[in-house]
Amino acid sequence: MQYNFYFDICALFILATIAVTSLSRRRVPAYRQRAYAALYTAILGTTIVERVDVMLQMNPMLDKVWFHQAQMLCGSLFFLIHLVTAYCYLVYIMSLLDIYVEYRVLKDFLRVCLGYLIAVVLIIVNWFVPIVFYYDENGAYHRANFIYVLYLIAFYYVTYGIVLMMRYSNLMRLKTRIVTTSYVFFSVIGIVIQFFFPSVLIENFCYTVSITLVFITLQNPSEMVDERLNILNRKAFLEGLELKTYRKHPHATIFVTIDNIRALSAEIGYAQGQAVLKKIARYLMRVGKLELRLSTYTYRYSDYCFAVTVHSRDDRKIARLLEKIAKRLKEPWNSSNMAIHIDGHCFVIKYPDHYETTAELMNRIDIITEDIAGVRDVIIDLDDSKYKEIKKYRDYDVLARGSLDAKRAVVKFQPILSKVYKINYSADAICFFVDENGNEVDLRQHIPDIRVTQALMDTDEFVYRRACRALAFWNGGDKNGKYRAVVGLSQGEISRNDFVRRIKKILKEEKAEASWISLKLTETTLATMNSVAERNLKLLGDMKASIIVDRYGSGYGNLDRLLGLPVMQINIDHSILTSAMESEEMRIVAQGIVNLFHDISLFVGATDISCEEDKKMAEQLGCDFLIGDYMGEPMKDSSFVKFIDAYFDEG
Questions:
Q1: Could you tell me if residue 136 is inside a domain?
Q2: Starting at the edge strand that comes first in sequence, how are the strands of the sheet with 225-226 ordered?
Q3: 568 assigned to some structural domain
Q4: 3-class SS at 299?
Q5: Measured on CA atoms in the order 199, 200, 202, 203, is the torsion positive or negative?
Q6: Which of 82, 249, 361, 636 suits 64 as a labelling partner, its CA being 20 to 30 A distant?
Q7: Do residues 228 and 345 both lie within one domain?
Q8: DSSP type of residue 132
Q9: Nearest to 251 by CA among 181, 315, 335
Q10: Over the range 28-49, which residues count as b (16 or more CB within 10 Å of their CB) and which as e?
Q11: Which distant-in-sequence residues (6+ apart) come within 8 Å of 551 by Cβ?
């Protein structure tokens, strides 16, 4: 029988061109690239097998014993590999949507592999009974009745892929959808033409045209790969993460941090440090498959943090993989005849148990890695109450914005006790936010010194306004009223160009005096503020407002700058009290700090008094004011007035 095999030759040349072009591209260890490579290999296989089969039919060697067996082998391989192309097309669409198949789960296995198993059984039976195809005594090819079953199986795979693409069409770019769909269009054209004109071998040519279009639309590998370590980068990780979270697909990611690599690089050299990182990256890329036969993909999330996505829903296997990685991190890494020890940690973050959005995940990672170097255990448990508490604090902006918008934030007043009178009419105004469960959250120790956010600045103004409102009521309009308040402000708020104008507006609306409120700013805030903030504070000083320097001794300091501002009081940090109680030398230093400020006519306060020992030490040092929950819990405005009245009523 004579065939027009011109299109097969063209197909082979096109596939060879794609292969040569691929050599100039960086090899990307990504799900999408692997799926495309499988699809390409399947189409190349069908083209080669069909070419061999055609050569056998056009040049029959009927006298050879092996000839008929060779034809049956080529025909069987052609149909099996042909079905693999349909299967790989489905897998490629899954890779575009970052959907993985867990073959060890029976449901997933049957959904994807049952059709191909049926085809394998039919081909095996066909060797003994010609139910799919056969060759006559002259070596000519003929179709049998059950060949349509193979077409139905291929139709199932292609339809399944198109349904997935339509279901999640908003997760794919229009160009990608068009090109991926065109694969089906060209394939159908090739199948129809070759079905009605068997001598025109155009089907594989149509496949190669469509796979060429897919090749053109593949994302540029350089955008997805970290060139130094040759693994997937942060962009590739976040892209896949967005796809999974949008589909609400439960998944797990193991994060591995290398905490001392900078110190190692300084000790053994940058190039040697990068070589160690490469070894770690290569290990993480292979560990899932080698140890537990799990499909994993490794990404460089940040300079010294790797993310390993695990394609499994088996929590026990994920936990075992985590233990394997933790065990390896404790062992030395051999590089250039040196045994190098690293300080590393690893932890599992699961969706939706630990986060629901990409922003939440990034925030959670920042929380864990912020102080991870001091953690002794290699494996970090995210369900530990410690990390839950820190996460709540790090969600300051979200909590603040939600409470302010819902008008659920509460301002409370904490009594400030003086050394002379034991109690006075001043109070520290503190804002409490309300979480989703209706609980008031105390974030006093977790307000940033330098970071500027809109929620933080809005909170400052909210507290200042409420303090003005309460003081106006307590003082009854008396400009020389006895009640006073202290309001903490952030660096962002005092750096506004219109800060003074906004303060004047609040004072006017609430009928309050600037002298009633002292502004509390941390030592770091004052030392790092810009010229605009410095000017604003001096203008407020002209309005009789005073400044209290908070947490002195805990951050950056600039004494000259402090003395150039209308500072009335210095609050020493609680760490100074703690140190003074631990050694006589530190007690002398603390005493010197207090005396220094007394000598320049500044009051000194002791903050965070939490027990009787703190109180006694602050009194011994000669602190003028004592502030802390031990001295008096924050209370609402009405309770604060009653608290003071009751004190004086009781003598």
A1: yes
A2: 225-226, 231-232, 296-302, 305-310, 251-258, 344-351
A3: yes
A4: strand
A5: negative
A6: 82
A7: yes
A8: S
A9: 315
A10: bbbbbbbbbebbbebbbbbbbb
A11: 522, 523, 524, 571, 573, 607
Q: How far apart are CA 550 and CA 516, in angstroms?
A: 18
In total, the chain counts a number of residues equal to 651
Domain total of the chain: 3
Task: Please indicate, yes or no, whether residues 163 and 135 belong to a single structural domain of this protein.
Answer: yes
3-state class (DSSP) for residue 293:
coil
Domain hosting 261: range is 224-394
Q: Kindly state the tokens that stand for 28.
A: 């990307």
Q: Same domain, yes or no, for 419 and 441?
A: yes
CA distance 8 to 207: 11
- With vertex at residue 241, the alpha carbon angle to CA 238 and CA 243, rounded to the nearest 5 degrees, is 115
Q: Find out whether 430 and 415 touch, Cβ atoms under 8 Å.
A: no
Residues 385 and 445 in one domain: no
Spatial CA neighbour of 349 closest among 385, 311, 388, 307: 307
Is 193 part of any domain? yes
pTM, 2 dp: 0.59
Q: Which residues of the chain fall short of a pLDDT of 70? A: 1-6, 22-29, 200, 216-222, 370-374, 383-398, 420-423, 436, 443-452, 555-556, 648-651
Average pLDDT value for the chain: 83
* CB contact set of 256 (below 8 Å; sequence gap of 6+): 280, 284, 305, 306, 307, 308, 325, 329, 344, 345, 346
Torsion of CA 167, 171, 175, 179, to 10 degrees: -50
Which residues neighbour 391 within 8 Å (Cβ) at sequence distance 6 or greater? 363, 364, 367
